[in-house]
Structure formats: structure tokens, C-alpha cells
Amino acid sequence: MAAGLQHETTGYQDWRVEVSVAEPETFILYFRDQPQCQAVLALSVNGRALSLHDIRWQFRRKAHQLEQWCNLTLGDTLSISMTYRFSADRLEIDYLARNPIPSRLELAHQITSTVLQEAQSDSKPAVSWLFQRNGQPSEYLIEQTTHGFCEAFSASLWLLLGQNCDENIRT
Q: Which domain of life is it from (predicted)?
């Protein structure tokens, strides 16, 4: 990460997602520089919520996407990565968490709309979202592995751009 960098961003047309280096567990989605929603990352291991405030996150920008990852030491190394990318009418966030020991991991952003329904206009479109787990978090326990990491959690979050706000995350 470059010295003095305050935010990591990626964008599509008038949309932009921003992750603050000072608060990397939070992102804000903007339309024409107006915040549309804010999301805070939540992680739990075996039902216990973990604090993400003191984690050293890494960032990498590739063509039209932003990658964010870290390694936590919880006895063994827990690897977490997220990829933010715009695809036509949505922002897609892919989550992957790996752990060499059997764990039940939950990883997702808790989203809050920052636009009041009455204040929405053509310059402030609404955002709705859909969260989908890619398989069950414990499916990896069935397979025997000889490499260092077992895939413990995989999920995708789609924020649908310019849609009417749906305040319920569907699973």
C-alpha cells in the first residue's frame, strides 16, 4: 500500500466503493459522490464474534476490482479475503476465509442505507442487496486435505445499483 494513501477505491460509471485505510472493516458506496449505503464487516469463529479493529489489512487494485485481505493468528492462521468489483448494474463482493483447523466461520458486511427514502431522486438512486452463501460453511469438513488450508467459508454479496431499497438481506 502506498505511503499516505487514505482510501482504496474502485468505481463504475457514477458509482464508487471506498474502503478507508483508517477503518478497513467499513466500506461506503457512493453515487455521484453521495453516500448510498455503509457496511461494516462482521466475523465470527465458532459463534464467537471477533474484533477486526487491530487487523493489518492489505489492498491490491487490479483492473476494475479491489482486493482486501489479511491473515489472523488464532492458534493457526486464518486467511480472509474480499474482492469488490462492479458488474453492469451491481457491486459484487466475494468473500473467502480459510483455516487449517475445523471452524465454523461467518463473514459478511452489515449494511445500512444512508439515503432516506423520501430524499431519493434521479441523482440519488436506491441500493438493494442480496447475500448468498456458496455452500455450507462446514462442507469442507467432509473432504480430507493434505495442503495447508481448508476452505472454510465462501459467500457473495450483490448490491443492486439503482434499485428500490430492500432493507432485508435475503439468504
A: Bacteria
